[in-house]
């Protein structure tokens, strides 16, 4: 379970609208190209560490632990900026991604082949 | 509660890894500028409607109803592509956003002033 006790700035914590597990989704975007790399999850402490260390830190839901992106792979995400959305339930983290964001070795976690869209466009 | 019965292509449905409410987060990104506009939630049927109508359709967790973005405001999201991520639990939807994505009238839902980052960069 995600922890809620944290050194996160209380003014920021007051704006966060967490899910039932105490988490908010964090979209990681390459700061200069605009490429969306992945989506991870942060609790207050993961956000605090991200803001104060300058390296993206997520809460791993599968492992139940904090996870500094790149500590195993070397593929760190150097934080450029972190923005909350209008209702405080999503974070947009602009980063400089070293190497691949995806564990498969691909640059991003999103399929290169999109799903077929039959309407509109 | 989100519905799970849907006409969504079974091959796509088989890849979706939904949360306990049957939903996956969907990141809406302006297709040409790369700007991240907002994050919404889709169940199978919302994704099916998004793919077949070419207009982003979300599940509103607060209202408990499907919601075609723009049907009230005129600020539709015309779908260019929809991609699943490597573990099937996030969607990246590239759109052409008419007007403002945010209900505040701002172009995106994310704060123009990011949170202070004290480490790294």
From TrEMBL, chains A, B:
InterPro entries: PRA-CH, PRib_AMP_CycHydrolase_dom, PRib_AMP_CycHydrolase_sf. Binds 1 zinc ion per subunit. Binds 1 Mg(2+) ion per subunit. Gene3D superfamilies: Phosphoribosyl-AMP cyclohydrolase. The keyword rRNA processing does not apply. Keywords: Amino-acid biosynthesis, Cytoplasm, Histidine biosynthesis, Hydrolase, Magnesium, Metal-binding, Zinc. The keyword Amino-acid biosynthesis applies. Residues 38-110 form the Phosphoribosyl-AMP cyclohydrolase domain. SUPFAM superfamilies: HisI-like (SSF141734). It is found in: Cytoplasm. Transmembrane segments: none annotated. GO terms for biological process: L-histidine biosynthetic process. Pathway: Amino-acid biosynthesis; L-histidine biosynthesis; L-histidine from 5-phospho-alpha-D-ribose 1-diphosphate: step 2/9; Amino-acid biosynthesis; L-histidine biosynthesis; L-histidine from 5-phospho-alpha-D-ribose 1-diphosphate: step 3/9. One of its GO terms (molecular function) is zinc ion binding. Zn(2+) binds at residues 86, 102, 109. Its cofactor is Zn(2+); Mg(2+). It catalyses: 1-(5-phospho-beta-D-ribosyl)-5'-AMP + H2O = 1-(5-phospho-beta-D-ribosyl)-5-[(5-phospho-beta-D-ribosylamino)methylideneamino]imidazole-4-carboxamide; 1-(5-phospho-beta-D-ribosyl)-ATP + H2O = 1-(5-phospho-beta-D-ribosyl)-5'-AMP + diphosphate + H(+). One of its GO terms (cellular component) is cytoplasm. In the N-terminal section; belongs to the PRA-CH family. In the C-terminal section; belongs to the PRA-PH family. PANTHER family: HISTIDINE BIOSYNTHESIS BIFUNCTIONAL PROTEIN, PHOSPHORIBOSYL-AMP CYCLOHYDROLASE. Catalyzes the hydrolysis of the adenine ring of phosphoribosyl-AMP. Homodimer. This is Phosphoribosyl-AMP cyclohydrolase. It comes from Streptomyces xiamenensis. The lineage of its organism: Bacteria, Bacillati, Actinomycetota, Actinomycetes, Kitasatosporales.
